[in-house]
TrEMBL record:
Its cofactor is Co(2+); Zn(2+); Mn(2+); Fe(2+). A divalent metal cation 1 binds at D95, D106, E247. This is Methionine aminopeptidase. Removes the N-terminal methionine from nascent proteins. The N-terminal methionine is often cleaved when the second residue in the primary sequence is small and uncharged (Met-Ala-, Cys, Gly, Pro, Ser, Thr, or Val). Requires deformylation of the N(alpha)-formylated initiator methionine before it can be hydrolyzed. It comes from Streptomyces gardneri. Residues 12-254 form the Peptidase M24 domain. The gene is map_1. The lineage of its organism: Bacteria, Bacillati, Actinomycetota, Actinomycetes, Kitasatosporales. A divalent metal cation 2 binds at D106, H181, E216, E247. Belongs to the peptidase M24A family. Methionine aminopeptidase type 1 subfamily. Its EC number is 3.4.11.18. Keywords: Aminopeptidase, Hydrolase, Metal-binding, Protease. PROSITE patterns: MAP_1 (PS00680).
């Protein structure tokens, strides 16, 4: 059953979303060579405490941290620890969440550690992030869930094949086993949102005011296939190629989409795509 929110509830989700945005800003600054992924989790814990919020990751299904730290070939759900030390040239996807008065926020981004990153990694992150925004722009009244999936997939498939020098790496891999989801009084709710079109899934529900979704493409430089490591959390590509993960939580209103986890509510980026963002309920 898809949960529909009132404007007042969306305002609370906006509060949670801004806490997530603050976690992103702080962890991005801390993701430097020599830092451990546990160091980043400590930064996240501090931000959550400073905002009087709660973590929706800590304890979720037994997860032991407040963020997921997914380095290089890790797609999602990497567990922060003292052993994983960030090195110059690494990429890391950080997935973070927060709860304010029972309402959830959830978002992820890919960061570059140090300097001198390979062009194909910079392009991988760009393609993944832009496909997310294509999906957000498709979150319009009257559209259906599949229109978001189609926008994400179409954007990715229209990009030039990634390559290293003169050598083609093949097509980008749109990760198949994980996708977006509804969000509200729980972090993961119906509907499940694929990052590609599946005939088996049909068109999905119609997009209506009060619908809130976490849109999160995950893309690799190779395979779309993944496997879970022995810790029962860490998801890696089966061919070892590196991956990127971007995510925002969005509320659809009568006045358009509001990107709950973006500082400006998504106003600037959506304007580039010809979409007007909904007014921020917090002003």
């Amino acid at each position: 059953m898809v949960q529909i929110k009132t404007p007042e509830q969306i305002a609370k989700m906006r509060e949670a979303g801004l806490v997530v945005a603050a976690i992103h800003a702080a962890t991005r600054e801390a993701a430097v060579p020599g830092a451990t992924t546990r160091d980043l989790d400590e930064v996240s814990r501090k931000v959550i405490a400073e905002h009087g919020a709660k973590s929706n990751f800590l304890g979720y299904g037994g997860f032991p941290a407040t963020i997921c730290t997914s380095v290089n070939e890790v797609v999602v759900h990497g567990i922060p620890d003292d052993k994983t030390v960030l090195k110059d040239g690494d990429i890391i996807s950080i997935d973070a969440g927060a709860i304010v008065d029972g309402w959830h926020g959830d978002a992820a981004y890919t960061a570059f550690v140090g300097t001198g990153h390979a062009p194909e990694l910079v392009e991988l992150s760009r393609v993944t992030e832009e496909s997310m925004w294509a999906g957000i722009a498709a979150m319009k009244l009257g559209n259906r869930l599949v229109d978001i999936s189609k926008a994400i997939e179409t954007y990715i498939k229209r990009q030039p094949r990634p390559s290293v020098g003169e050598h083609s790496l093949g097509r980008y891999g749109i990760v198949e086993d994980y996708g977006g989801h509804g969000i509200g009084t729980e972090m993961h709710m119906d509907p499940h949102l694929l990052n590609y079109v599946s005939r088996k899934r049909g068109k999905g529900p119609k997009l209506v005011p009060g619908l809130c979704l976490a849109i999160e493409p995950m893309v690799s430089l190779g395979t779309p296939h993944t496997e879970v490591l022995k810790d029962d959390w860490t998801v890696v590509t089966t061919d070892g190629t590196w991956s990127s993960h971007w995510e925002h939580s969005i509320a659809l209103t009568e006045e358009g989409p509001l990107v709950l986890t973006a500082v400006d509510g998504g106003k600037a980026k959506l304007a580039e795509l010809g979409v007007t963002a909904a007014p921020d309920p917090l002003g």
